[in-house]
Amino acid sequence: MGDTAEAETAEEAPDSESGRAAELTELTGAVRALTEQVQAHHARAEARERVIDQLHAEVQRLRAGEQEIVLRPVVTDLQNLRTDLLRQSRTLPPDVGRDQIAGLLESFALTAELALERCGIVPVRPEIGAAFSAREHKAIKAVEAVHADEDGTIAEIVADGYQDIRTERILAAARVHVRRWTEPADEHQPEGSTDA
Questions:
Q1: Cβ count near 174 (within 10 Å)
Q2: Would you list the domain boundaries of the chain?
Q3: Where in the sequence does UniProt note compositional bias of the Acidic residues kind (predicted)?
Q4: Closest Cα to residue 120, out of 161, 165, 160?
Q5: In CATH, 121-196 is 2.30.22.10
């Protein structure tokens, strides 16, 4: 009986070794397949990264080109304005009058206004006596109103405002002086008397 047990154990040993070898071969194949899958995944990820980098570079080039296209008319208008200013400064006669200088400066302001209009922006000039609006005006000084009905009206325009033509949104408020009414002190009331 002892011989039979040894024989069975001896027979099982080669079977278990061949089973282990088969399992090891199977595991090696599975690891090899996983390694190939991971390598393929990494290759696809690298390819995606290259595509993303190329697309990002293309977007940056397009943005730069778009900005150049948008700014080109403004740059051209500024160059023309500068050229006109320099030409006029060289050709001014020595006895130029105040009215001539004012007309010249207004023509340059008109050139700048045309450049702004090409960009979709127009100047907005409020009228003196119009009601003050915090959306459209910026009060930089309060001046005394002569009458109560002048309270909250524009007394003087310091600088025009600017409005986007497309959205009609105020981009820069007009800077103005605003009238404020204050009740005058009652001079007819004697000292020491109080209202009941």
A1: 21
A2: 1-119, 121-196
A3: 1-15
A4: 165
A5: yes
